[in-house]
Protein backbone atom coordinates (compact mmCIF):
# COMPACT_ATOMS: atom_id res chain seq x y z
CA UNK A 1 0.00 0.00 0.00
CA UNK A 2 2.81 2.37 0.81
CA UNK A 3 5.74 1.30 -1.33
CA UNK A 4 5.33 4.22 -3.72
CA UNK A 5 5.98 6.59 -0.78
CA UNK A 6 9.52 5.33 -0.19
CA UNK A 7 11.15 8.53 -1.42
CA UNK A 8 8.92 10.81 0.64
CA UNK A 9 9.47 8.92 3.90
CA UNK A 10 13.00 7.41 3.68
CA UNK A 11 13.13 6.74 7.44
CA UNK A 12 10.55 4.01 6.91
CA UNK A 13 12.50 2.13 4.24
CA UNK A 14 13.46 -0.61 6.68
CA UNK A 15 9.78 -1.62 6.69
CA UNK A 16 9.41 -1.53 2.92
CA UNK A 17 12.51 -3.69 2.53
CA UNK A 18 11.29 -6.17 5.13
CA UNK A 19 8.07 -6.80 3.22
CA UNK A 20 9.55 -7.07 -0.26
CA UNK A 21 10.02 -10.84 0.19
CA UNK A 22 6.28 -11.30 0.76
CA UNK A 23 5.33 -9.71 -2.53
CA UNK A 24 4.57 -11.85 -5.56
CA UNK A 25 6.09 -10.43 -8.75
CA UNK A 26 4.02 -11.00 -11.88
CA UNK A 27 5.01 -10.29 -15.46
CA UNK A 28 1.62 -10.28 -17.22
CA UNK A 29 0.24 -9.48 -20.68
CA UNK A 30 -2.34 -6.81 -21.46
CA UNK A 31 -5.94 -7.64 -20.52
CA UNK A 32 -4.95 -9.68 -17.46
CA UNK A 33 -7.64 -9.55 -14.77
CA UNK A 34 -6.06 -8.87 -11.36
CA UNK A 35 -9.38 -8.69 -9.50
CA UNK A 36 -12.87 -9.56 -10.72
CA UNK A 37 -15.88 -7.42 -9.89
CA UNK A 38 -17.83 -9.23 -7.17
CA UNK A 39 -14.77 -10.98 -5.67
CA UNK A 40 -13.16 -9.97 -2.38
CA UNK A 41 -9.81 -8.21 -2.76
CA UNK A 42 -7.02 -10.19 -1.09
CA UNK A 43 -3.96 -8.26 -2.35
CA UNK A 44 -2.57 -4.79 -2.58
CA UNK A 45 -1.25 -4.16 -6.11
CA UNK A 46 1.87 -2.16 -6.90
CA UNK A 47 2.74 -1.34 -10.52
CA UNK A 48 6.41 -1.42 -11.40
CA UNK A 49 5.80 -1.19 -15.16
CA UNK A 50 2.68 -0.87 -17.24
CA UNK A 51 -0.83 0.48 -17.06
CA UNK A 52 -3.87 -0.79 -15.18
CA UNK A 53 -7.50 0.28 -15.18
CA UNK A 54 -10.41 -0.22 -12.83
CA UNK A 55 -13.90 -0.55 -14.27
CA UNK A 56 -17.36 -1.90 -13.58
CA UNK A 57 -19.90 -3.53 -15.85
CA UNK A 58 -23.25 -1.86 -16.48
CA UNK A 59 -25.69 -3.83 -18.62
CA UNK A 60 -22.85 -5.58 -20.47
CA UNK A 61 -20.85 -2.40 -21.03
CA UNK A 62 -17.55 -1.53 -19.30
CA UNK A 63 -17.42 1.81 -17.49
CA UNK A 64 -13.81 2.80 -16.79
CA UNK A 65 -13.32 4.48 -13.42
CA UNK A 66 -9.58 5.10 -13.16
CA UNK A 67 -6.15 4.47 -14.69
CA UNK A 68 -2.96 3.62 -12.80
CA UNK A 69 0.65 3.68 -14.00
CA UNK A 70 4.22 3.02 -12.86
CA UNK A 71 4.99 3.49 -9.18
CA UNK A 72 1.32 3.63 -8.23
CA UNK A 73 -0.50 1.28 -5.93
CA UNK A 74 -4.14 0.27 -5.83
CA UNK A 75 -6.75 -2.09 -4.55
CA UNK A 76 -10.51 -2.15 -4.43
CA UNK A 77 -10.24 -0.42 -1.08
CA UNK A 78 -13.70 -1.07 0.36
CA UNK A 79 -13.39 -4.73 -0.59
CA UNK A 80 -9.83 -4.98 0.73
CA UNK A 81 -10.56 -3.34 4.09
CA UNK A 82 -14.11 -4.56 4.78
CA UNK A 83 -14.13 -7.99 3.07
CA UNK A 84 -16.92 -6.93 0.73
CA UNK A 85 -17.36 -7.95 -2.91
CA UNK A 86 -15.41 -5.55 -5.12
CA UNK A 87 -17.45 -3.03 -7.09
CA UNK A 88 -14.70 -2.97 -9.71
CA UNK A 89 -12.66 -5.20 -11.96
CA UNK A 90 -8.94 -4.39 -12.06
CA UNK A 91 -7.24 -5.23 -15.37
CA UNK A 92 -3.93 -4.52 -17.10
CA UNK A 93 -4.10 -2.42 -20.27
CA UNK A 94 -0.45 -2.91 -21.29
CA UNK A 95 1.97 -5.76 -20.65
CA UNK A 96 2.84 -5.04 -17.02
CA UNK A 97 5.11 -5.95 -14.14
CA UNK A 98 3.15 -5.86 -10.93
CA UNK A 99 3.64 -6.92 -7.32
CA UNK A 100 0.93 -8.38 -5.11
CA UNK A 101 1.19 -8.07 -1.34
CA UNK A 102 -1.30 -10.35 0.46
CA UNK A 103 -3.70 -8.72 2.89
CA UNK A 104 -2.20 -10.42 5.97
CA UNK A 105 1.17 -8.76 5.30
CA UNK A 106 -0.43 -5.39 4.63
CA UNK A 107 -2.08 -5.67 8.05
CA UNK A 108 1.23 -6.62 9.69
CA UNK A 109 3.01 -3.75 7.93
CA UNK A 110 0.40 -1.24 9.11
CA UNK A 111 0.62 -2.56 12.67
CA UNK A 112 4.41 -2.11 12.66
CA UNK A 113 4.29 1.29 10.99
CA UNK A 114 1.70 2.62 13.41
CA UNK A 115 4.43 2.99 16.06
CA UNK A 116 6.49 5.29 13.84
CA UNK A 117 6.11 9.08 14.19
CA UNK A 118 6.03 9.57 10.38
CA UNK A 119 3.20 7.07 9.93
CA UNK A 120 0.33 9.43 10.73
CA UNK A 121 1.78 12.08 8.43
CA UNK A 122 2.12 9.52 5.66
CA UNK A 123 -1.46 8.25 6.04
CA UNK A 124 -2.81 11.81 6.07
CA UNK A 125 -0.72 12.73 3.04
CA UNK A 126 -1.81 9.67 1.10
CA UNK A 127 -5.49 10.06 2.06
CA UNK A 128 -5.55 13.76 1.20
CA UNK A 129 -3.90 13.11 -2.15
CA UNK A 130 -6.38 10.41 -3.14
CA UNK A 131 -9.39 12.27 -1.72
CA UNK A 132 -8.52 15.45 -3.62
CA UNK A 133 -8.08 13.52 -6.85
CA UNK A 134 -11.43 11.73 -6.54
CA UNK A 135 -13.31 14.89 -5.53
CA UNK A 136 -11.87 16.72 -8.54
CA UNK A 137 -12.92 13.83 -10.80
CA UNK A 138 -16.42 13.79 -9.31
CA UNK A 139 -16.90 17.55 -9.64
CA UNK A 140 -15.54 17.55 -13.18
CA UNK A 141 -17.94 14.79 -14.20
CA UNK A 142 -20.89 16.88 -13.00
CA UNK A 143 -19.68 20.33 -14.02
CA UNK A 144 -17.72 19.82 -17.24
CA UNK A 145 -18.72 18.68 -20.71
CA UNK A 146 -16.99 15.60 -22.17
CA UNK A 147 -14.94 17.97 -24.34
CA UNK A 148 -13.78 19.92 -21.28
CA UNK A 149 -12.93 16.67 -19.47
CA UNK A 150 -10.87 15.54 -22.47
CA UNK A 151 -9.05 18.89 -22.51
CA UNK A 152 -8.29 18.47 -18.79
CA UNK A 153 -6.79 15.05 -19.59
CA UNK A 154 -4.63 16.58 -22.32
CA UNK A 155 -3.40 19.33 -19.99
CA UNK A 156 -3.10 17.55 -16.66
CA UNK A 157 -2.59 13.87 -17.48
CA UNK A 158 -1.34 13.67 -21.09
CA UNK A 159 0.24 10.26 -20.43
CA UNK A 160 -3.29 8.80 -20.35
CA UNK A 161 -4.05 10.09 -23.84
CA UNK A 162 -0.66 8.87 -25.09
CA UNK A 163 -0.80 5.36 -23.61
CA UNK A 164 -4.43 4.32 -23.15
CA UNK A 165 -6.51 2.96 -26.09
CA UNK A 166 -9.23 5.35 -27.24
CA UNK A 167 -12.16 3.10 -26.34
CA UNK A 168 -11.03 3.07 -22.68
CA UNK A 169 -10.65 6.87 -22.69
CA UNK A 170 -14.14 7.20 -24.18
CA UNK A 171 -15.50 4.91 -21.45
CA UNK A 172 -13.68 6.97 -18.80
CA UNK A 173 -15.18 10.20 -20.17
CA UNK A 174 -18.66 8.67 -20.40
CA UNK A 175 -18.96 8.98 -24.18
CA UNK A 176 -18.90 6.69 -27.22
CA UNK A 177 -15.73 6.25 -29.26
CA UNK A 178 -17.49 8.09 -32.11
CA UNK A 179 -18.19 11.05 -29.82
CA UNK A 180 -14.55 11.05 -28.65
CA UNK A 181 -13.39 11.09 -32.29
CA UNK A 182 -15.59 14.14 -32.89
CA UNK A 183 -14.14 15.89 -29.82
CA UNK A 184 -10.59 15.20 -31.00
CA UNK A 185 -11.39 16.36 -34.52
CA UNK A 186 -12.96 19.58 -33.22
CA UNK A 187 -9.96 20.29 -31.01
CA UNK A 188 -7.53 19.59 -33.87
CA UNK A 189 -9.41 22.02 -36.14
CA UNK A 190 -9.37 24.64 -33.39
CA UNK A 191 -5.58 24.46 -33.20
CA UNK A 192 -5.20 25.30 -36.88
CA UNK A 193 -6.68 28.76 -36.29
CA UNK A 194 -3.85 29.92 -33.99
TrEMBL record:
InterPro entries in the record: cNMP-bd_dom, cNMP-bd_dom_sf, RmlC-like_jellyroll
Source domain of life: Bacteria
Coiled coil location: none
Pfam families (alphabetical): cNMP_binding
Cyclic nucleotide-binding domain ranges (all copies): 28-111
Name of protein: Transcriptional regulator, Crp/Fnr family
